[in-house]
Structure formats: C-alpha cells, structure tokens
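Renewal narrative, Specific Aim 1. Our central claim is that a sequence can be written position by position from structural information alone. The example that follows is taken directly from our test logs and has not been curated for this report. It begins with the structure tokens describing the chain, in the order in which they were read.
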C-alpha cells in the first residue's frame, strides 16, 4: 500500500452473545481468512487489506494484553468518528462520558486549531 491508496472506513453496530474476547477472536479470524498476515515481531503500523477493530462493547471498560476497550485511538481518528457519528451520535464513551458527536466536534476543533495534523477524508456516495 502507498500513501495514495484508497481505503473504505466504516462503523457498524451488532448484537452478540459472545464475550468481548470471543468477538475479538472472531474478528481476527475473519481478517486472517481475508489474507491478513500479522508479524508479531514488527513494531508500529503494518500494511493490511482488512482491519477490523472492536471500538466499544456495551459500555465495558476492559484492559488486557489482547484487548483494550474502548479502543484507545477513537478520539483522535476522524475516519472512525465521522462514520460513528452517522450511526450513533448519542453513543457515550464510558471513560470520558462524551458522546460520539462531542468527540467528533472536539477533534474537528483540534484539527482546525492546528493542534493535530489534518486528517483528510472524503465521502463517495454509492450510486446504483
């Protein structure tokens, strides 16, 4: 992948009878089935064609070596917050108490103030 690659970012909600770690294992299995290879010795970002993250789980705060909930990068990633706000602007972060909409607005403000680098994202509408 290169800096000009196109990515599709999406956020979804689901109901499950699985526990958080069981759901994580299922997501990892789906990634593997779609060709994701993980180098356990690599540090930092690794190219991948599919990346499934568990952002929240029923308001649970979880911190273990294999899973951190809520996902620790949510508040700093426009490509996560923008689609999250579309489906659940009311969703409340259990650590901060902020809604997805509030986190989104705060992130936009920090970008506008130059406190963090711009995160250009674009939306392409599907036509059928």
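The sequence written for that structure reads:
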């Amino acid at each position: 992948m290169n800096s000009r690659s196109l990515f599709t970012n999406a956020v979804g909600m689901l109901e499950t009878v699985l526990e958080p770690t069981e759901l994580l294992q299922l997501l990892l299995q789906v990634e593997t089935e779609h060709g994701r290879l993980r180098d356990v010795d690599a540090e930092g970002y690794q190219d991948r064609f599919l990346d499934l993250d568990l952002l929240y789980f029923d308001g649970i705060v979880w911190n273990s070596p294999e899973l951190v909930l809520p996902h620790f990068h949510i508040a700093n990633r426009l490509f996560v917050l923008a689609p999250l706000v579309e489906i659940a602007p009311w969703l409340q972060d259990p650590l901060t108490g902020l809604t997805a909409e509030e986190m989104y607005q705060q992130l936009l403000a920090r970008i506008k103030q130059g406190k963090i680098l711009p995160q250009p994202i674009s939306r392409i509408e599907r036509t059928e």
